[in-house]
Design a protein that fits this description.
Radius of gyration: 15 Å
Distance between the termini: 38 Å
CATH superfamily: Response regulator
Number of domains: 1
Order of helices and strands: HHEHEHEHEHEH
Strand content: 5-15%
Helix content: 40-55%
Length: 177
């Protein structure tokens, strides 16, 4: 199996249960996954859990955001690029569901603007065309006014610069939800 395909398949299967990163051992992943799932709590109306997909080509950024948001009570998952995010959004295994119910949607995508191959802005356009009820918050380490204006015109709920402050992220997610 090609390396890129292996990554996508692995993440699709484990979406919502934590993702793998190279040298991390099984015990560490299981402990992290237990913390992440325990951190999930109901938010919003009708007891619906809010699901956030973090898309960033830097695994350290993606995982630290996922850990932080899981601690805030969200269900989280990560994707390393736009293609992986698209597969997860379109796939049948977005998040685990109890009692064999249909897969539940992703509520918010947090996406880096600058990624190899497909940019975060291109991913934003794809999400708005294919998953119009999914909110998108853009993150960037190299923010410009032009990029922010373009993202907002394309339908982004918010545009944040890295390193993102906890309060900024919390407010952006509350507005997006």
């Amino acid at each position: 199996m090609e390396r890129g395909k292996e990554s996508t398949v692995r993440r699709t299967v484990e979406f919502g249960e934590g993702s793998e990163h190279g040298s991390e051992n099984r015990d560490t992943r299981e402990n992290r996954d237990t913390r992440r799932n325990r951190g999930s709590r109901e938010r919003g109306s009708m007891g619906q859990k809010k699901r956030i997909l973090i898309v960033d080509d830097d695994p350290i950024v993606a995982e630290s955001l996922a850990e932080h948001l899981a601690g805030e009570g969200y269900e989280t998952a990560t994707a390393m690029n736009a293609a992986e995010a698209q597969a997860l959004l379109d796939g049948a295994s977005n998040f685990p569901t109890p009692e064999g119910r249909a897969p539940q949607p992703v509520h918010v995508v947090l996406s880096d603007v600058s990624m190899p191959e497909t940019s975060g802005l291109d991913l934003l356009q794809w999400i708005k065309a294919n998953h119009p009820t999914t909110a998108v918050v853009m993150l960037t380490g190299y923010g410009t006014i032009e990029s922010a204006v373009r993202a907002l015109r394309l339908g982004a709920a918010d545009y944040l610069t890295k390193p993102v402050m906890d309060d900024e992220l919390r407010v952006a997610l509350e507005r997006a939800l």
